[in-house]
C-alpha cells in the first residue's frame, strides 16, 4: 500500500533571520515564521489533506510550527527528526560554514572534527525515523516537521535522477510517496510563494 509523507521544514527563526548556524541549538520562531506556518496550515486545509499522524522534531522551532499547523491534533516528538548537529559551529555566523569540496553536494564528514554529525549520520537517522513512522502509520498521510539540513540530507539519500531539486525554504513541504520501504519525491510546495 502506498502512503504519503508530508516532510516539512519549520518556520523562520531568529537565528535564520540573524544568519546564524542553527542545528542542535534552537531559537524561537519570528513573526514571519509564524505567518509561514499559517500559510502551510492553509495549504493543508485548501487541499483537504487528511493527516492521519503528525510528528515533530523535539526542537522548539519545529514543535511551535506544528502547533500552528495542527492546533487541535496531538503529535509525537521524535529526536530522530532533529536538525544536523554542527558541533562547535552552532550559533556561529553562517559565513563561517565551510565551502563544499569540489564534486560534493554537502558538508560530508566536515563537522565530525568539531563535535557534530556527518551527512551520512543525518541521512541514516532521518531514514530510520521516517521509515518507522511510515511503517507504523495507520492510514495514508503523515506529517513530519524537521529542519533544512536534515531535509536536505534525507533528499540526497532518496533522490532519483528525474527529481528536480526542491526548495528548502522555511515551511517548504516535500511530498514523498512511501512504498515497499522506499521514499519517492513526488513534488515540493512552498506555501509562502
Topology:
Blueprint: E1 3-9, H1 14-18, H2 31-46, E2 53-57, H3 60-69, E3 76-78, H4 119-136, E4 141-146, H5 148-158, E5 173-179, E6 182-189
Parallel strand pairs: 1-4, 2-3, 2-4
Antiparallel strand pairs: 1-5, 5-6
Task: Kindly describe this structure.
By secondary structure, the protein is an alpha/beta fold. The chain has a domain at 3-14 and 32-83 and 119-189: Phosphoglycerate mutase-like (Rossmann fold, 3-Layer(aba) Sandwich), CATH 3.40.50. The chain contains five helices and six strands. The protein has a six-stranded mixed β-sheet, sandwiched between helices. Helix 2 (31-46) packs across helix 3 and helix 4 (119-136) packs across helix 5 (148-158). The longest helix is centred in the middle third of the chain and has 18 residues, at 119-136. The protein is globular. The protein starts with a strand and ends with a strand. 42% of the residues are buried. The model has no long low-confidence stretch (mean pLDDT 96).
Brief characterization of the structure:
The chain is an alpha/beta fold and 193 residues long.
Detail the poorly predicted runs.
none
Number of helices: 5
Distance between the termini: 32 Å
CATH architecture of the domain at 3-14 and 32-83 and 119-189: 3-Layer(aba) Sandwich
Side by side, the strands of the main sheet go 3-2-4-1-5-6
CATH class of the domain at 3-14 and 32-83 and 119-189, please?
A: Alpha Beta
Strand percentage, roughly? 15-25%
Judged by helices, strands and strand pairing, the structural class is alpha/beta
- Classify the fold: give the CATH topology of the domain at 3-14 and 32-83 and 119-189: Rossmann fold
Please report the total strand number as a whole number.
Answer: 6
State the helicity in percent bands: 25-40%
Secondary-structure element pattern, one letter each: EHHEHEHEHEE
* Main pleated sheet: 6 strands, mixed
Specify the overall morphology.
Answer: globular
Overall mean pLDDT: 96
Radius of gyration: 16 Å
CATH superfamily of the domain at 3-14 and 32-83 and 119-189: Phosphoglycerate mutase-like
Protein name: Histidine phosphatase family protein
Pfam families: His_Phos_1
Organism: Tetragenococcus solitarius
